Amino acid sequence: MARIQIPLLAVDGGGTKCLAVFAEADRSLLGTGRAGSCNYQGIGEAAAKQEVIKAIRAAMQEVCQRKGIVAGQAEWEVACAVFGLAGLDTGRDREIIQQMVAAALSELSIQVNDLIVENDGFAALLGATKGGAGILVIAGTGSIAYGINGAGTTARAGGWGHRVGDEGSGYWIGKQAVQEVLRAADGRSGVTQLTGLLLTHLGLDHVEALFNWAYSPDFSVEKTADLSPLVSLAAEAGDIAAVRILQKASEELALAAQSVITKLALGEVPFTMILQGGVLQKHDLLRGMVVEQIKSIAPKVQIDMENHEPIDGVIAKGLAYLEKRAQAQ
């Protein structure tokens, strides 16, 4: 039986997709595989494990094709495997995800000499900063802020999920929009353009139907997040309720960033702040509000709007670990 020895297995697994790559020490890729969401908090541990397996197995097949080896007829040894996975927020999460990863590797019969498991947000941060000091603020369906300083110390704020957190996210903004429509219908606030925009978008005839939708099987976090562009549209037209929502969202995102800045003592030193996620990438008004607030507390910040690939951070972390280990030997 052939023996395949590879320096690095890198896996980036989020709420939308799972990407697995095998790489050489010079960063050249040997195999790539993709699968769906592997956030166990959203789809369950068993389903998440299967998506991880699917992505890695596809990458393994590509490696075998390159090497001219029949898939399933090789022994696999990986020097270092790094997993950046969504849903790793607490100590309990780490236990569950590490067990899930170990089970996936066992099922695939891959021997891993050194295993590193991190939150996917930290992987994205490392990919964006290339090891330098920086803060990553993500506002997509959910929201979170990560940071790293020059000493390598890391910190985070937010990211507690849609039920109890994710302030400033697409879901949070969409939920606020629904609430504003209901408040207006009650007469607890003024008339808002959001009423017509939301009803049209959802194909509903009246506000009561919006209430029914919110408690129906059709409701979802993703569909609620899809309402957030309507808030930006209304705000740009001067709608008071929409502007109020975006202002509050910007304050929450800036507060998360400020918390990380304070923890890492970055307020008076140069650092990069990376803004990622659909909300910050596409909503110009909201992004401007966030940037203005951050610059008021961290005047030396540099804003980076490039869409960095999280897998690059996972690979960088694994290769840095291998290099450090080699130097120690």
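the 2nd protein, sequnce then structure:
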Amino acid sequence: MKYSIEIFDKYKPQIIIGRSLGTAVASYAASKRDIEKLILITPFDSIENIAKSKYPFLPVKYILKHKFKEIDWIKKVKTHVYVILSEIENIVPKKSVKNILSNIPNLKNFYIIKNSTHGNILQNEDFVNILEKILKH
């Protein structure tokens, strides 16, 4: 995660956008630096929790080197957070999505892209419209 801070400090963006695994990196950077907006596309609470739900028979706690505990970082973000979700989420369990949403202290708004999955959300025509709307506010 230290590289996200190095990149942030080099470019000093005012808006950070993260998608899927990148939402954890974006949340981490936003928890360490002041920004104008944080936009999370298909976020999750932690890779560890996703792995536990998909592979309950494995000791994932001990297998995973990087647990990407986005839930810990998002609680420290001071700026407005916008979330874009897929209607048919086929990667991140609903429990993980609900958990992250309920732990965002500055959740400004969240959107659900109809007829989209985790993998094709960026290709959905509504995605660009919603992203433009967020960026204008």
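DSSP finds seven helices and four strands in the chain. The radius of gyration is 15 Å.
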